Amino acid sequence: MAKLTRIKILTTGSTTSAPSNVRTGELAYSYVAGTQANNGDRLYVGTGTENSGIAPSVDVIGGKYFTGMLDHVHGTTTNNSALIVDGNKHIDVLNIGTLALESSGGSGQEVTSIVTAMGGSPTDAQLISAQGVKEYVDAQVTAQDLDFQADSGGALSIDLDSEVLTISGDTGITTSASGNQIEIDLDDTAVTPGSYGSTTAIPTFTVDQQGRLTAAATVNVATALTVDGDSGSEDVDLLTDDLQILGTTNEIEVAVSKVSTDVKAIIGLPNNVTIGNNLAVTGNLTVNGTTTTVNSTTVTIDDPIFTLGGDSAPGSDDNKDRGLEFRYHNGSAAKLGFFGFDDSASAFTFIPDATNNTEVFSGTAGNVIFSEGTFTGLASGNIKVGQTADGEIDTSSGNLTLDSAGGTVAVDDDLTVSGGATVTGAIAGASLTLTTDLAVAHGGTGVSTFADNGVLYGDGANALDVTAASSADGSLLQADSGGAPAFSNVIDGGTY
Fold it and tell me: What pTM, to 2 d.p., does this model score?
């Protein structure tokens, strides 16, 4: 199916600010979770006369933040939402500060007056004032008794304006009154005040039915700690002895420190570690240093691929070679050899007598021997078949004929003909290189390159022109103000 042009609404999900770069009549939407304090979940439109393609004002015209406040049952007040009355112009509850107005059964109650006295014949349409409530309560307090009951003694009452309520203490409790305050105190016990427990003793206590301490003492505790090792066992006197945790040279080190009340013993490896026996690493091994030396008779690596140059591809060319450096003796002197990739030549090379200057090797390339092989490409000066002084393929007399016995003689690189060339058959090739662009008058385009994904269009006898590539999915090819074709994803509907 062909792609259709769409009229898009600008959106943002990374900011709570209103858009500021929209055109007049252009829509924009912010889908950040909207709140009263930010500008999320809102639909905007540019208004006013544009200045340099930008509308001077951006107005809010809707969005999920506002419609969400209306998405509830009519007549039901909902948190963080608008008030919508039902068919009878009612709402179920309305909170004003600490005052709540709530209907009964959803029908509501109409208030017609505020009265200052509880007497008469009050109705559901009246609200009592604070003064009226106070007068009513005062009268009720004078006329009423206070009923109370203890854990024992039955139900009792006291006349609020004529009798006295007495609060007295029982076992272990004494009460006293002063002014308008009653104090209730615990009686002293036989326990001697002081601190109980020490470095060698822990405190013991006796508690009665009332939760009071009736006796206090101390009990001695053990002060020795037994430490067992892989071999040997010793007791540490916690009051006099030091418990030492020591490492071994080049194997384990221990660092002890104290921060506030915390004493820490950190056990770790020293900077220089010596392992006298076998070492097995079951996980990954990372060595970050300058030199890694392996002195062993045999080195075995299970991985069929040996990676040189780092654990990831370099971000830029470091101009260093990659390969194997080896040391040997040719019978006369010690030599340094190199076999690998020459970064400067972008080719593999073998140098039997090499010089290593910070991982860049130099020296004369040596000979290599292959019994047989297939080469997909060779590059190192001239390829010589038949040795001449000029390194050419030469014949002693007559012509040189390349014949593939019925097949094709292929030249995969540039072919330079310094003399004349006679072609009796058709010229077929992947490409034909000209020193100048082929003009339109001769069937060419007049240019060497075109913009990627552009569309060609004519310019008389001049070189062909090409549009810029579309920057948006579903764009249409339209004519600009000068009549030239151009891509655009905007359909201008004009004004009304």
Answer: 0.30
